[in-house]
Design goal:
Number of helices: 18
Largest sheet: 7 strands, mixed
EC number: 6.2.1.1
GO molecular function: acetate-CoA ligase activity; AMP binding; ATP binding
Strand order of the largest sheet: 5-4-17-16-18-19-20
Radius of gyration: 24 Å
Protein name: Acetate--CoA ligase
Number of strands: 30
Structural class: alpha/beta
Helix content: 25-40%
Family: Belongs to the ATP-dependent AMP-binding enzyme family.
Keywords: Acetylation, ATP-binding, Ligase, Nucleotide-binding
Bound molecules: adenosine-5'-monophosphate-propyl ester
Oligomer: single chain
Distance between the termini: 56 Å
CATH class of one domain: Alpha Beta
CATH architecture of one domain: 3-Layer(aba) Sandwich
Length: 632
């Protein structure tokens, strides 16, 4: 059954209902899912704890709502279409029946390897259907998956394994991305030198490259599934049992494990998918994200598959073998809804319209954007050249913590305004707060974005450290969830997201904590201290600018810069590598020793005229020295 809104007045009506009586609003939607046992109470909440529970004592398995639910009505319909990195190579089309069988087979493998309800399973895999099968098999047996983006380094992977106390890793031998063949299993092998928690590793063979298999611990995926039954009874889960943990960066310390639970996430990911994209049966939908991020979880795997949609998984990159690759795929599968990140749009925009010319793109009905603010120029390019001015753009604002889309147009229903995420979805009660903690009511206001009332897909805790969850999200404004984003509500009541107001930077749509990058830089033995800030970057949205104090005794600057970059790649991964590194004699600090990041940000942006008052600095002269050595 569909809970799709069809008109703008329908949206306003649903929104009003969702605020007036949230429990009944969500209960009605949840009733269209398959529950092993219906819940007793719809919601219990307290943002002080925080303690949020939806659909209390409801029993379910999310995979029954993806697999069994669609088997008899659409068993032969494609669930996942997989497009490989290399255009000429065979693709794979997996029907709902096949997905059911593969998930069951792999569930049987997990059980054979001793995986039990509540166990943590790390998935460190490239974009192959087996990554989705692995996620669903975990959910089916009640294990908690934690997908780690396969571009993270062995150190970052080890941190996550240790933090969530995983006992199984699912991976692949290697990965094809553009021209590159990337080792994957060897990264896991390196990570496992830091921990002996992992009892079992299952390796999907993708590239055929040589790997070493450890007897008794490592098994090939294709051998493990051989002869396994194609049925497996789904384990009964409570609504509030953990479904997955996904690590994300914050303004302090190491990445934290955002915990999502079975019932609320299921309802929210499907409801938002159907409504935002206006998916109708038979449509072909494509989200270009990686399953290692929340977008891949909610809008490649769970949301679309819960809706019975056909979802495309693409292994490659937008520019290989040429910048027309996305559009070739759109035409090949007659994609109806296309969802990508502004950074990808800008990267393609650089190549002009020639790579688009050979393609019709006439199947497209809806375009989506996610991950960072979309600038007006990119919005118009996307609208004109990809959507041929006839496709609405859904600029979807949300976060790993929100589980699903929170502020977005409903495609073709909510009038678009370039660079505006427009209006909150039903059930989402926003508040704009001023620095003193007062809510700014009415239109034409700007402040920090908070959420006043729980929604089913929201974060429940940060794994292993509930207090961190409280301090990060629920302490800044009493009784509210604080998003970390700045926002403006314009004269029409439309929302425009202005970007992070904390020490988090958004590089190519990837969230990066400045403290995390600084820690990685400081690993270099000659680094004394560092400070990292973001600056506007034409393609990435924000670039990473690092100011570093070093002991230069026996190195050239060029050598040192390369070594620092290598250190970051080694500690986190290539995505965190600073774009610019400036070796500085000192950092602008207050008398109490606090780094004045505001000044460093302005210098990185090239805004030297508006540095503000620097007289309170311990050493005001340092500012001129830093400006003199600024990297263009
Ligand atoms: O700053 C916002 C930005 O991305 C952050 C969340 O990052 P992450 O948890 O990695 O999730 C990304 C995919 C949902 C937000 O705090 N962000 C995300 N979408 C938008 C956005 N900023 C502006 N407009 C968006 N549409």
């Amino acid at each position: 059954m569909s809970d799709r809104i069809h008109t703008l007045s329908g949206y306003f009506h649903e929104y009003q209902k969702s605020v007036a009586d949230p429990e009944n609003f969500w209960a009605k939607i949840a009733d269209s899912f398959h529950w092993k046992k219906r819940w007793d109470k719809t919601l219990e909440w307290d943002f002080e704890g925080p303690d949020v529970k939806w659909f209390l004592n409801g029993k379910l398995n999310i995979t029954e709502n993806i697999l069994e639910r669609h088997l008899y009505t659409m068993g032969d319909k494609p669930a996942i279409i997989w497009e490989p990195n290399e255009p000429g190579d065979p693709n794979r089309i997996i029907t709902y029946m096949e997905l059911y069988e593969e998930v069951c087979r792999f569930s049987n493998v997990l059980v054979e390897k001793g995986v039990e309800k509540g166990d943590k399973v790390i998935i460190y895999m490239p974009m192959v259907p087996e990554a989705a099968i692995a996620m669903l098999a975990c959910a089916r047996v009640g294990a908690v998956h934690s997908v780690v983006f396969a571009g993270f380094s062995s150190n970052a992977l080890a941190d996550r394994i240790i933090d969530c106390k995983a006992k199984v890793v699912l991976t692949s031998d290697g990965n094809f991305r553009g021209k590159k063949k990337i080792p994957v299993k060897s990264v896991v092998d390196e990570a496992l030198e830091h921990t002996d928690l992992i009892e079992t590793m299952i390796v999907f063979q993708r590239t055929g490259q040589e790997v070493t298999m450890k007897e008794g611990r490592d098994f090939w995926w294709h051998e493990a599934i051989e002869g396994k039954s194609k049925s497996h009874e789904a384990v009964e889960m409570d609504s509030e049992d953990e479904l997955f943990i996904l690590y994300t960066s914050g303004s302090t310390g190491k990445p934290k494990g955002v915990v999502h639970t079975c019932g609320g996430y299921m309802i929210y990911s499907k409801y938002t998918f159907e409504n935002v994209f206006q998916y109708t049966p038979g449509d072909v939908y494509w989200c270009t994200a990686d399953v290692g991020w929340i977008t891949g979880h909610s809008y490649i795997v769970y949301g679309p598959l819960l809706t019975g949609a056909t979802t495309i998984m693409f292994e490659g990159v937008p520019t290989y073998p040429n910048p027309g690759r996305f559009w070739e795929i759109v035409d090949k599968y007659k994609v109806n809804q296309f969802y990508t990140a502004p950074t990808a749009i800008r990267a393609l925009q650089v190549h002009g319209t020639e790579p688009i010319a050979p393609y019709k793109l006439d199947s497209l009905k809806v375009l989506g954007s996610v991950g960072e603010p979309i600038n007006e120029e990119a919005w118009h390019w996307y609208h004109t050249h990809i959507g041929k001015t006839k496709c609405p753009i859904v600029d979807t604002w949300w976060q790993t913590e929100t589980g699903g889309i929170m502020v977005s147009p409903l495609a073709g229903i909510t009038p678009n305004k370039p660079a505006f995420a427009t209006l909150p979805l039903p059930g989402v009660q926003l508040a704009i707060m001023d620095p003193e903690g007062k809510e700014l009511k009415g239109n034409s206001v700007e402040g920090n974005l908070c959420i006043k009332f729980p929604w089913p897909g929201m974060i429940r805790t940060t794994y292993g450290d509930h207090d961190r969850c409280k301090q990060t999200y629920f302490a800044a404004y009493k009784g509210m969830y604080f998003t970390g984003d700045g926002v403006k509500r314009d004269h029409d009541g439309y929302y425009r997201i202005l970007g992070r107001v904390d020490d988090v930077i958004n590089v190519s749509g990837h969230r990066m904590g400045t403290a995390e990058v600084e820690n990685a830089i400081n690993e270099h033995p000659l680094v004394v201290e560092s400070a990292v800030v973001g600056y506007p970057h034409p393609v990435k949205g924000q670039g990473i600018y690092a100011y570093v104090i070093c002991d230069m005794s026996n190195r050239t600057e060029a050598n040192l810069v390369n070594e620092i970059k290598a250190s970051v790649t080694n500690m986190i991964g290539p995505i965190a590598k600073p774009d610019k590194i400036q070796i500085v004699p000192g950092l602008p600090k207050t008398r109490s020793g606090k780094i004045m990041r505001r000044i460093l940000r302005k210098i990185a942006e090239g805004n030297m005229d508006s540095l503000g008052d620097t007289s309170t600095l311990l050493d005001p002269d340092i500012v001129d020295k830093i400006i003199a050595g600024r990297k263009e």
